[in-house]
Amino acid sequence: MGVDILEEKKYIFSGHETFHCKGFWLKKGYDYVKQGRKFIDESCISLGVGRNMVSSIRFWLKAFNIIDQQNEEITPLGNFIFNENNGVDKYLENETTLWLLHFSLIQTNFSSIYSIIFNEIRKTKPEFNKSNLIAFLNEHNVSFNENTVNKDFSVLTRTYFSKSNDKEDSFSGILSSLELLEEIKHKDSNKYIIHNKKTNSIPVELLLFCILENDKYGLSISHKSLSGDANSIGNIFAMNNDQLDEKLTELSSLYKEINYTSNSGVKELQFKNKNLNSYSILRDYYENQA
User: Fold this and answer.
1) 183: which residues sit within 8 A by CB, 6+ positions away?
2) pTM (2 decimals)?
3) Residue 44, exposed/middle/buried by CB under 10 A (0-12, 13-18, 19+)?
4) Short-list 183, 198, 199, CA closest to 127
5) What is the DSSP letter of 233?
6) H-helix or E-strand containing 122?
7) Which residue, among 154, 146, 137, 117, has the nearest Cα to 17 in the 3D structure?
8) Each residue's pLDDT tens digit, 199-230
9) What percentage of the chain reaches a pLDDT higher than 90?
Protein backbone atom coordinates (compact mmCIF):
# COMPACT_ATOMS: atom_id res chain seq x y z
CA MET A 1 0.00 0.00 0.00
CA GLY A 2 1.25 3.46 -0.81
CA VAL A 3 3.88 2.47 -3.40
CA ASP A 4 2.51 4.49 -6.32
CA ILE A 5 2.11 7.72 -4.40
CA LEU A 6 5.19 7.49 -2.18
CA GLU A 7 7.67 6.47 -4.86
CA GLU A 8 6.64 8.73 -7.69
CA LYS A 9 6.04 12.04 -5.98
CA LYS A 10 8.23 14.79 -4.59
CA TYR A 11 7.07 15.93 -1.18
CA ILE A 12 6.57 19.54 -0.18
CA PHE A 13 5.99 20.59 3.38
CA SER A 14 5.40 24.09 4.83
CA GLY A 15 5.07 27.35 2.83
CA HIS A 16 1.74 28.48 4.28
CA GLU A 17 3.30 30.62 7.06
CA THR A 18 1.00 28.66 9.46
CA PHE A 19 -2.11 30.35 7.95
CA HIS A 20 -4.92 28.15 6.64
CA CYS A 21 -6.58 29.44 3.47
CA LYS A 22 -9.45 31.86 4.08
CA GLY A 23 -12.49 31.79 1.83
CA PHE A 24 -11.79 35.10 0.09
CA TRP A 25 -8.04 34.66 -0.41
CA LEU A 26 -8.18 32.73 -3.69
CA LYS A 27 -10.36 35.33 -5.42
CA LYS A 28 -8.23 38.14 -4.03
CA GLY A 29 -5.04 36.42 -5.17
CA TYR A 30 -6.50 35.50 -8.57
CA ASP A 31 -7.52 39.10 -9.27
CA TYR A 32 -4.08 40.31 -8.21
CA VAL A 33 -2.26 37.96 -10.62
CA LYS A 34 -4.82 38.57 -13.37
CA GLN A 35 -3.88 42.26 -13.24
CA GLY A 36 -0.35 41.26 -14.21
CA ARG A 37 1.11 41.88 -10.77
CA LYS A 38 3.91 39.86 -9.19
CA PHE A 39 4.36 38.90 -5.55
CA ILE A 40 6.94 41.37 -4.25
CA ASP A 41 7.54 43.25 -1.00
CA GLU A 42 4.91 45.85 -1.89
CA SER A 43 2.22 43.21 -2.43
CA CYS A 44 1.05 43.56 1.16
CA ILE A 45 -0.14 47.10 0.37
CA SER A 46 -2.09 46.06 -2.73
CA LEU A 47 -3.59 42.96 -1.12
CA GLY A 48 -4.31 44.69 2.18
CA VAL A 49 -2.74 41.98 4.32
CA GLY A 50 0.50 41.50 6.22
CA ARG A 51 3.69 40.29 4.56
CA ASN A 52 3.39 36.76 5.93
CA MET A 53 -0.18 36.55 4.66
CA VAL A 54 1.02 37.59 1.18
CA SER A 55 3.34 34.57 1.19
CA SER A 56 0.49 32.40 2.40
CA ILE A 57 -1.90 33.59 -0.32
CA ARG A 58 0.79 32.91 -2.92
CA PHE A 59 1.27 29.44 -1.47
CA TRP A 60 -2.44 28.58 -1.48
CA LEU A 61 -2.89 29.82 -5.05
CA LYS A 62 -0.32 27.23 -6.07
CA ALA A 63 -1.60 24.52 -3.73
CA PHE A 64 -5.13 24.80 -5.18
CA ASN A 65 -3.71 25.12 -8.73
CA ILE A 66 -5.15 28.59 -9.31
CA ILE A 67 -1.70 29.69 -10.52
CA ASP A 68 0.99 27.34 -11.80
CA GLN A 69 3.96 26.52 -9.64
CA GLN A 70 6.74 27.59 -12.03
CA ASN A 71 5.65 30.79 -13.76
CA GLU A 72 2.88 31.85 -11.36
CA GLU A 73 0.48 32.34 -14.25
CA ILE A 74 -3.27 31.76 -14.06
CA THR A 75 -4.22 28.14 -14.75
CA PRO A 76 -7.26 26.89 -16.69
CA LEU A 77 -8.83 25.97 -13.34
CA GLY A 78 -8.23 29.46 -11.98
CA ASN A 79 -9.95 31.06 -14.96
CA PHE A 80 -12.73 28.47 -14.91
CA ILE A 81 -13.70 29.44 -11.37
CA PHE A 82 -12.74 33.10 -10.97
CA ASN A 83 -12.70 34.79 -14.39
CA GLU A 84 -14.67 38.03 -14.15
CA ASN A 85 -16.54 37.43 -17.42
CA ASN A 86 -17.30 33.71 -17.40
CA GLY A 87 -16.06 32.27 -14.10
CA VAL A 88 -18.54 29.70 -12.84
CA ASP A 89 -18.37 30.60 -9.14
CA LYS A 90 -16.25 33.69 -8.45
CA TYR A 91 -17.32 33.98 -4.81
CA LEU A 92 -17.39 30.26 -3.95
CA GLU A 93 -21.13 30.17 -3.33
CA ASN A 94 -21.66 26.68 -4.80
CA GLU A 95 -20.52 23.74 -2.68
CA THR A 96 -19.53 21.89 -5.85
CA THR A 97 -16.70 24.40 -6.26
CA LEU A 98 -15.40 23.55 -2.80
CA TRP A 99 -15.37 19.87 -3.76
CA LEU A 100 -13.51 20.85 -6.93
CA LEU A 101 -10.93 22.78 -4.89
CA HIS A 102 -10.60 19.84 -2.51
CA PHE A 103 -9.86 17.58 -5.48
CA SER A 104 -7.34 20.05 -6.88
CA LEU A 105 -5.54 20.49 -3.54
CA ILE A 106 -4.89 16.75 -3.29
CA GLN A 107 -4.11 16.12 -6.96
CA THR A 108 -1.70 19.07 -7.28
CA ASN A 109 0.40 17.80 -4.35
CA PHE A 110 2.00 21.22 -3.79
CA SER A 111 1.22 20.69 -0.11
CA SER A 112 1.89 16.98 0.21
CA ILE A 113 0.20 16.36 3.54
CA TYR A 114 -3.25 16.48 1.90
CA SER A 115 -2.38 13.78 -0.62
CA ILE A 116 -0.79 11.60 2.06
CA ILE A 117 -3.71 11.93 4.48
CA PHE A 118 -6.46 11.20 1.93
CA ASN A 119 -4.64 8.60 -0.16
CA GLU A 120 -2.84 6.76 2.61
CA ILE A 121 -3.34 7.64 6.27
CA ARG A 122 -7.13 7.42 6.39
CA LYS A 123 -6.95 3.81 5.13
CA THR A 124 -4.16 2.60 7.44
CA LYS A 125 -5.24 4.62 10.49
CA PRO A 126 -8.98 5.43 10.36
CA GLU A 127 -8.51 7.47 13.55
CA PHE A 128 -5.30 9.47 13.31
CA ASN A 129 -3.33 12.36 14.74
CA LYS A 130 -0.02 13.99 13.88
CA SER A 131 1.92 11.24 15.65
CA ASN A 132 0.45 8.71 13.23
CA LEU A 133 1.48 10.92 10.32
CA ILE A 134 5.04 11.23 11.64
CA ALA A 135 5.24 7.45 12.10
CA PHE A 136 3.97 6.89 8.56
CA LEU A 137 6.57 9.24 7.05
CA ASN A 138 9.35 7.58 9.00
CA GLU A 139 8.15 4.13 7.96
CA HIS A 140 8.31 5.14 4.29
CA ASN A 141 11.66 6.97 4.58
CA VAL A 142 10.26 10.36 3.58
CA SER A 143 12.65 13.20 4.40
CA PHE A 144 10.98 15.84 6.60
CA ASN A 145 11.37 18.21 9.53
CA GLU A 146 9.10 17.11 12.38
CA ASN A 147 8.29 20.65 13.54
CA THR A 148 7.36 21.63 9.98
CA VAL A 149 5.08 18.61 9.52
CA ASN A 150 3.42 19.31 12.87
CA LYS A 151 2.55 22.81 11.60
CA ASP A 152 1.25 21.34 8.34
CA PHE A 153 -1.00 19.00 10.30
CA SER A 154 -2.38 21.90 12.33
CA VAL A 155 -3.13 23.86 9.15
CA LEU A 156 -4.81 20.82 7.57
CA THR A 157 -7.16 20.39 10.52
CA ARG A 158 -8.08 24.09 10.38
CA THR A 159 -8.66 23.83 6.62
CA TYR A 160 -11.23 21.07 7.02
CA PHE A 161 -12.48 21.40 10.56
CA SER A 162 -13.99 24.44 12.24
CA LYS A 163 -14.49 24.58 15.99
CA SER A 164 -17.00 27.36 15.39
CA ASN A 165 -20.63 26.41 14.87
CA ASP A 166 -20.87 29.17 12.29
CA LYS A 167 -19.90 27.59 8.98
CA GLU A 168 -20.10 31.01 7.32
CA ASP A 169 -17.43 32.39 9.64
CA SER A 170 -14.86 34.13 7.39
CA PHE A 171 -12.08 32.80 9.59
CA SER A 172 -13.09 29.17 9.09
CA GLY A 173 -11.03 27.00 6.80
CA ILE A 174 -12.07 27.22 3.17
CA LEU A 175 -13.14 23.54 3.08
CA SER A 176 -14.65 23.20 6.54
CA SER A 177 -18.23 23.23 5.24
CA LEU A 178 -17.56 19.93 3.44
CA GLU A 179 -17.52 18.31 6.90
CA LEU A 180 -14.97 15.71 5.82
CA LEU A 181 -12.95 15.87 9.03
CA GLU A 182 -14.34 15.05 12.44
CA GLU A 183 -12.56 15.40 15.76
CA ILE A 184 -12.71 12.36 18.03
CA LYS A 185 -12.08 13.18 21.67
CA HIS A 186 -10.17 10.58 23.67
CA LYS A 187 -9.20 10.64 27.30
CA ASP A 188 -5.49 11.03 26.59
CA SER A 189 -5.44 12.77 23.19
CA ASN A 190 -7.76 13.85 20.42
CA LYS A 191 -7.74 12.20 17.02
CA TYR A 192 -9.43 12.85 13.69
CA ILE A 193 -11.42 10.72 11.31
CA ILE A 194 -12.29 11.33 7.65
CA HIS A 195 -15.66 10.27 6.39
CA ASN A 196 -17.96 11.72 3.77
CA LYS A 197 -21.42 12.49 5.11
CA LYS A 198 -22.31 14.61 2.10
CA THR A 199 -21.74 12.26 -0.83
CA ASN A 200 -25.10 13.27 -2.29
CA SER A 201 -23.84 16.84 -2.67
CA ILE A 202 -21.11 15.72 -5.10
CA PRO A 203 -22.49 15.84 -8.67
CA VAL A 204 -21.45 13.01 -10.98
CA GLU A 205 -20.32 15.66 -13.47
CA LEU A 206 -17.58 16.63 -11.03
CA LEU A 207 -16.57 12.99 -10.59
CA LEU A 208 -16.38 12.60 -14.37
CA PHE A 209 -14.24 15.75 -14.52
CA CYS A 210 -11.85 14.23 -11.98
CA ILE A 211 -11.66 10.94 -13.89
CA LEU A 212 -10.98 12.70 -17.20
CA GLU A 213 -8.28 14.85 -15.58
CA ASN A 214 -6.37 11.73 -14.53
CA ASP A 215 -4.04 10.97 -17.45
CA LYS A 216 -3.23 7.49 -16.09
CA TYR A 217 -6.68 6.21 -17.00
CA GLY A 218 -7.48 4.56 -20.31
CA LEU A 219 -10.80 3.63 -21.88
CA SER A 220 -11.51 0.97 -19.24
CA ILE A 221 -11.09 1.66 -15.53
CA SER A 222 -11.78 -0.92 -12.87
CA HIS A 223 -13.91 -0.17 -9.83
CA LYS A 224 -10.87 -1.18 -7.78
CA SER A 225 -8.75 1.54 -9.41
CA LEU A 226 -11.45 4.17 -9.02
CA SER A 227 -11.79 3.18 -5.39
CA GLY A 228 -8.22 2.75 -4.22
CA ASP A 229 -5.58 4.10 -6.61
CA ALA A 230 -3.62 7.22 -5.71
CA ASN A 231 -5.80 10.28 -6.41
CA SER A 232 -8.78 8.08 -7.28
CA ILE A 233 -12.22 9.57 -6.72
CA GLY A 234 -12.79 6.96 -4.02
CA ASN A 235 -9.78 8.17 -2.06
CA ILE A 236 -10.14 11.90 -2.67
CA PHE A 237 -13.83 12.00 -1.82
CA ALA A 238 -13.61 9.33 0.90
CA MET A 239 -16.36 7.21 -0.61
CA ASN A 240 -16.97 3.61 0.36
CA ASN A 241 -17.56 0.95 -2.31
CA ASP A 242 -21.35 1.23 -2.22
CA GLN A 243 -21.28 5.03 -2.54
CA LEU A 244 -18.86 4.79 -5.45
CA ASP A 245 -20.92 2.07 -7.12
CA GLU A 246 -24.02 4.25 -6.91
CA LYS A 247 -22.22 7.24 -8.44
CA LEU A 248 -20.74 5.21 -11.30
CA THR A 249 -24.13 3.72 -12.10
CA GLU A 250 -25.62 7.22 -12.22
CA LEU A 251 -22.77 8.40 -14.42
CA SER A 252 -23.37 5.58 -16.88
CA SER A 253 -27.06 6.43 -17.10
CA LEU A 254 -26.36 10.10 -17.93
CA TYR A 255 -23.76 9.70 -20.69
CA LYS A 256 -24.21 7.46 -23.71
CA GLU A 257 -20.42 7.42 -24.18
CA ILE A 258 -19.96 5.63 -20.83
CA ASN A 259 -20.90 2.15 -19.65
CA TYR A 260 -20.55 0.74 -16.16
CA THR A 261 -20.44 -3.02 -16.47
CA SER A 262 -19.83 -6.10 -14.38
CA ASN A 263 -18.33 -9.05 -16.26
CA SER A 264 -17.37 -12.15 -14.29
CA GLY A 265 -17.72 -10.12 -11.12
CA VAL A 266 -15.26 -7.43 -12.28
CA LYS A 267 -16.82 -3.99 -12.34
CA GLU A 268 -15.47 -1.54 -14.89
CA LEU A 269 -16.21 1.95 -16.12
CA GLN A 270 -15.84 1.87 -19.90
CA PHE A 271 -15.56 4.81 -22.29
CA LYS A 272 -16.54 4.35 -25.92
CA ASN A 273 -14.09 7.18 -26.62
CA LYS A 274 -12.25 9.87 -24.71
CA ASN A 275 -13.65 12.80 -26.71
CA LEU A 276 -15.39 14.18 -23.63
CA ASN A 277 -14.03 17.55 -22.51
CA SER A 278 -13.72 17.77 -18.74
CA TYR A 279 -14.19 21.55 -18.47
CA SER A 280 -17.13 21.59 -20.90
CA ILE A 281 -18.90 18.92 -18.87
CA LEU A 282 -18.41 20.85 -15.65
CA ARG A 283 -19.38 24.18 -17.19
CA ASP A 284 -22.60 22.64 -18.51
CA TYR A 285 -23.36 21.48 -14.98
CA TYR A 286 -22.94 25.00 -13.54
CA GLU A 287 -25.00 26.55 -16.30
CA ASN A 288 -27.82 24.10 -15.64
CA GLN A 289 -27.76 25.13 -11.96
CA ALA A 290 -28.26 28.81 -12.77
Assistant:
1) 157, 161, 190, 191, 192
2) 0.92
3) middle
4) 183
5) H
6) helix 122-124
7) 154
8) 999 999 999 999 999 999 999 999 999 999 99
9) 72
